[in-house]
Amino acid sequence: MPSDKKYLELLSREFPNIAATTTEIINLEAILNLPKATEHFVSDIHGEYEAFQHVLRNGSGNIKEKIREIFYNRLSQKEMNTLATLIYYPKEKIQLILKECETQEEINDWYRVTLSRLIELCVFAASKYTRSKVRKALPQEFAYIIEELLSKDDKFLNKDAYYNEIISSIIALDRGQEFVVAISLLIQRLVVDHLHVLGDIYDRGPYPAKIVDRLMKHHSLDIQWGNHDILWMGAASGSAVCIANVLRISARYDNLEIIEDAYGISLRQLLTFVETTYPERKGSCFEPKLDPDKPPYYEEEVRQLAKIQQAIAVIQFKLEAQSIRRNPDFQMEHRMLLDKIDYEKGTITLDGVEYELDNTDFPTIDPKDPYSLTPEEQAVMDRLVYAFTHSEKLQLHVSFLINNGSMYLVYNDNLLYHGCVPLEEDGSFMALELGGKKYAGKALFDMFDEAIRKGFLNRKRQNTTKYLDLIWYLWTGPVSPLFGKGKMTTFERYYIKDKTTHKENKNPYYRLRENEDTVLAILEEFGVSAQNGHIINGHTPVKEKAGEDPIKANGRLLVIDGGYSKAYQETTGLGGYTLLNNSYGMQLVAHQPFSSKKDAIMNESDIVSTRRVVDLELERKKVADTDTGKKLCEQIEDLKDLLRAYREGELKEKI
User: Fold this and answer.
1) Radius of gyration of the chain (CA)
2) 352-408, pLDDT tens digit by residue?
């Protein structure tokens, strides 16, 4: 066909003759037989930069496993721990080790032994990749030297003096420290080929911006957005209601520095409004959740955080009601609560029951029109919307999340998403009707994915309200794949002491995902192989202390909430889960809480991790069995068509 010939002509520009074409076919067919590379799954990082960094650096224990494989009978446990810590934190660990050396000879001997071990480990880590891929990963400064050392063959002694001289020269020229750092970081990169982040980078912990900076430097990754990420993405897109939620949560967890210091967004106008409108701190319902590891707080700091929460919470409730009014299809009128308050009695009536309010200070609410912002509130929000949409760093970070993320991903027969697939009690897909059209299952995810992208990409244009409202709905709506509950009881938790009003009923998904048939139906809906497929799920902390199992539906669904957030660890009883998927199968890794970077370096206190085999491959998986392999097979078929065209004279070779 003419179109086929045009395609082959284009392909011939890259492969101009039979020699080039056959060489590429041989290369690609060889790659198909390499072992499948390692995938690393993490979730629910919640701003805990140090703990996340450590898990990235140690590959969920993967580096220590490789050290054991190579040096089990040659090094003591102490020596293996020291080598592992050196690879995780090379700059810091080298300084500590060299301080203990008394002479230059001791230093030189340490470098010789250590470099030899690091090179041996690096050869092992690189063994499942092509030389071309390893070459691309090499640090530029030492690329030639490392490539030469990685090609060393211990069976032949002809070049021993050559290799020994390379190491001696590195030490003699005082480049040992830089070389150790370079090869350690290369090992970190090689032990994990691809990273999956299943959402919730933001909120709770103090350093989400640092985490995104780190992810932006990662060599290969994808992101499935979480409900807390969506809030920040909505805020960066200009959603006032998302901004209000972001500010309230940041004040609640004493993380306003993220907004001011990390993203350069001034809160001065908000603080002035708070101090003039809420001069007194009344009640305890807005007390912030403070980090006990931080230095003692000044009373004035705590007072200010409480008042910011109160002021922005009221603004949030007003803005949420405005969104609900604009979108009757959301069917969330029951969450408009400010008009249910008796402001004289200080009570609220919910579902026919009257409750006393814990705080009756509502200086900005007009009982006759409770959902209108005052001029001062409107001015504050206008200023904040401008600041969020013009924060260069926030816009850069959210652009990265948009370009590298999605609502879900199908990757190597695994379906990845953060929250849930909303289900009815009978297991059928729950639908959200918008404008007369129903969205359920995969179509629901696709609709929200499109709305998020349009909301951000059109953020500086008019008429984006419908997209921004859908982004907010993802945070709190009853048919949201990222929320997964019937309602969010923020108002009740602040204002009503009766805890029966605080209950948030989970979507039936969280009960039905224990059932293998349900999971298989979801996999089928998303076009995933029922024979080999799994669902990888984040969002909900696994209460291991209460006996909950992260492996569900006969091994078909895995919950890997990272448990990085300190706020959850007392409930869960551990530091969360990650997942490794390599050529031998899938391993779920349970982690104990991370102590600190300082402790990890000084005392070599790695995170204690326990591995459980989820799926053991009877036959080792190859690249041919992956999505990458499928693409390579398509390329091979195209190249074979090109080769046939050359040999049959349809195309002329170029010399």
Assistant:
1) 28
2) 999 999 999 999 999 999 999 999 999 999 999 999 999 999 999 999 999 999 999
Burial 117-133 (b: 16+ CB within 10 A, else e): bbbbbbbbbbebbeeee
pLDDT tens by residue, 435-476: 999 999 999 999 999 999 999 999 878 778 999 999 999 999
Structure tokens given for 650: 């349809």
Which of 34, 42, 18 lies closest to 576, judged by CA? 42
Cross-strand bridge partners of residue 257:
none
**Burial per residue of 410-445, b for 16 or more beta-carbon CB atoms within 10 angstroms, e otherwise:** bbbbbbbbbbbbbbeeeeebbbbebeeeebbbbebb
Angle at which helices 160-172 and 104-126 cross, to 10° = 130
CA atoms within 13 A on the CB side of 193: 18
Residue type, 612: R
Q: What residue ranges in 533-584 does DSSP mark as E strands?
A: 534-537, 551-552, 557-559, 577-582
Is 8 a residue whose pLDDT tops 80?
Answer: yes
Rounded to whole angstroms, the maximal C-alpha distance in the chain is 94
DSSP 444: H
Read off the amino acid at residue 477: G
Token readout for 398 is: 């959210």
List the beta bridge partners of residue 578.
Answer: 589
What gap in Å lies between CA 8 and CA 642, rounded to an integer?
A: 6
Please, are residues 475 and 242 in contact by the beta-carbon 8 Å criterion?
Answer: yes
Q: What does the CA dihedral 361, 365, 366, 372 come to, rounded to 10 degrees?
A: 180
Whole-number Å distance between alpha carbons of 284 and 279: 15
Exposure class string for 185-203: b at 16+ Cβ within 10 A, else e: bbbbbbbbbbbbbbbbbbb
* C-alpha–C-alpha distance, residues 595 and 48, integer Å: 12
Q: Is the dihedral of CA 543, 548, 553, 554 positive or negative?
A: positive
The 3-state secondary structure of 330-356, one letter per residue:
HCCHHHCCHHHEECCCCEEEECCEEEE
Round to whole Å and give the CA distance between 537 and 562: 11
Distances (CA, A) of 174 to 96, 169, 524, 653: 17, 8, 59, 52
Taking only the tens place, the pLDDT of each residue in 591-626 is 777 777 788 788 777 665 566 666 666 678 999 999
Beta strand extents in 285-334 (DSSP E only): none
Structure tokens given for 582: 């390599």
**All residues at 6 or more sequence positions from 631 whose CB lies less than 8 Å from its CB, including other chains:** none
Q: Cβ atoms within 10 A of the Cβ of 356, count?
A: 13
**Which pair of structure tokens corresponds to residue 257?**
């520095």
